[in-house]
Design brief:
The structure is a single chain. The protein has 230 residues and is an alpha/beta fold. The chain is built from 5 helices and 12 strands. An 8-stranded mixed sheet has the order 5-4-1-6-9-10-11-12, sandwiched between helices. It has a two-stranded antiparallel sheet with strand order 2-3. Strands 7-8 form a two-stranded antiparallel sheet. Helix 4 links the parallel strand 9 and strand 10. Helix 1 crosses helix 5. The two termini are 27 Å apart. The model has no long low-confidence stretch (mean pLDDT 94). Bound molecules: cytidine-5'-triphosphate and calcium ion. Cytidine-5'-triphosphate (CTP) binds next to helix 3 and strand 9. The site of cytidine-5'-triphosphate has 12 residues, from helix 3 and strand 9.
Length: 230
């Protein structure tokens, strides 16, 4: 934590943070989800509040206590996350998409619980793509000069290194900052630590050594804050 020298450099700023992982329902009791714990998003919300910001935390399926002094909006699906983030972004100086939205949803949600067939067969699940919230927020800024931040967990593959993929994703999404985690060595999921590179659209990059998610949160707000136009 920043401790005694913590300043209120975000006082008067309004920020939106999304956290957790969305669920896409197949029927009333089953869903497709992911392993996001929400820890990094909650750390971002707490860090911003401690620096004086007015914080809206859009939380998808997170089992963590509400951070003090933060407005929490609960959502389940990517469509609900999109609506909540777009609506909160309208008055925001910064939007940080730390949530892991499900990329796909079933084309149809069964109203009744899906039952097993006696012949041992299994249903095929048809999926369609969800809207890209970060790209939408970046390309249609509700407030000119708002700072938009995305996250990317990458392993690197035949087409490029973790940083190559991060640079390409930053350009594709149109955000100002992209926080890139290298997850090839193992999971960051549920861990209280994180290690990242913050890539900026202006070409800058900041390496953040392994440390707490709170420490990374403060670096992210430092980078956001220096990009505020006024
Ligand atoms: N994101 C989003 N809406 C989506 C998917 C992702 O806003 N439907 C945001 C995430 O919150 C994150 C950033 O985009 O901040 C990058 O997410 P990622 O899953 O890495 O990007 P994708 O475009 O889904 O690419 P990939 O195929 O690598 O999953
Ligand atoms: Ca994705």
């Amino acid at each position: 934590d920043r401790g005694a020298d913590a300043s209120l450099d975000l006082a008067g700023r309004s920020v939106v943070v999304s956290a957790g992982g969305t669920r896409e329902y197949l029927d009333p009791v089953r869903f497709i989800g992911n392993r996001s714990s929400g820890l990094q998003g909650y750390a971002l919300a707490r860090a911003a509040a401690s620096r004086g910001a007015r914080v809206t935390l859009v939380s998808a399926n997170v089992s963590l206590p509400d951070p003090a002094g933060v407005g929490v909006v609960r959502v389940e699906t990517t469509a609900q996350l999109r609506d909540a983030v777009v609506s909160a972004a309208a008055g925001a100086d910064a939007v940080v998409m730390a949530a892991a939205p499900a990329d796909f949803r079933p084309t149809a949600v069964s109203e009744a619980k899906i039952k097993k067939a006696d012949d041992g067969s299994a249903p095929a699940i048809e999926l369609e793509q969800n809207p890209d919230i970060l790209a939408e927020i970046s390309h249609h800024r509700a407030r000119p000069g708002a700072v938009v931040v995305g996250f990317a967990a990458e392993t690197g593959d035949a087409t490029g290194s973790v940083l190559d993929l991060g640079r390409a994703k930053l350009a594709r999404k149109g955000c100002d900052l992209l926080v890139v985690n290298d997850v090839s060595g193992g999971a960051v999921f549920g861990s209280s630590d994180n290690e990242a590179v913050v890539l900026a659209a202006d070409g800058a990059s900041v390496e953040v050594p392994r440390g707490s998610k709170t420490a990374l949160a403060h670096v992210i707000w430092d980078e956001v804050s220096r990009r505020f136009a006024d």
